[in-house]
Amino acid sequence: MTAETPAPDRRLAQKQRTREQILAAAAALIEGDLPGRFSVDELVEQADVSRRTIFNHFESLDEILIHVGVERLFVFSDALETSLANAAEPLDRSAVLAIFADVLDTDVLPEVIAYFMSTMGMKPSYTAHSHQLFHGAFTHMSEEIVEQIVSASDVLDRFDADLIIATVIAGMETVAKHWLNAEPLLHTDGASITPESRIRFHALFARLAATWRAGEPPHLHEH
């Protein structure tokens, strides 16, 4: 007969289920008909838990938003790990940054950035608070990515990998800032991105990727 699961294990499993329940409720509120900043009371109702339960698991709403955002970044982490493992050339700093440029060059990236910027209000905008969320989510994943880089490279140590991550985060924050501040009217609501705005985003990202590859940045034509 199988021994009964010890009580501490059951409590740990229940704690994890409750945590996931809260995060799922937060994601549902963000992706609902009125995307934007939600209140603790709205999260309590959506998750069907008490305020005390929420703050037993998370220190603040911002921490919840960061964790939900990190889930959206996992697609890039998985793709990065695969690209690092399959790289044919020696993985020095330039090679790793070139891989970042390839992995991040997708139509998913502007959607992820718009998510972070729209959690603070009805329309995406680059504010100090949205910057904090964006930075927090990338930083939250940085340790995992550092491990991926160090494991895949024979010439880069943790210090080198940390510098690469800092370069990537700073670059993405700069793209987000210029994209959202230059033409905010292109964002019609908190969830959609117009074709014109998407074109501008990819033009800005191309300039960033060119610097990562140590090439000449292309000229940005206004649209």
UniProtKB/TrEMBL annotation:
This is Transcriptional regulator, TetR family. One of its GO terms (molecular function) is DNA-binding transcription factor activity. It comes from Agrococcus casei LMG 22410. InterPro entries: Homeodomain-like_sf, HTH-type_TetR-like_transc_reg, HTH_TetR. It holds the Pfam family TetR_N. Residues 16-76 form the HTH tetR-type domain. Residues 39-58 bind DNA. Coiled coil: none annotated. Keywords: DNA-binding, Transcription, Transcription regulation.
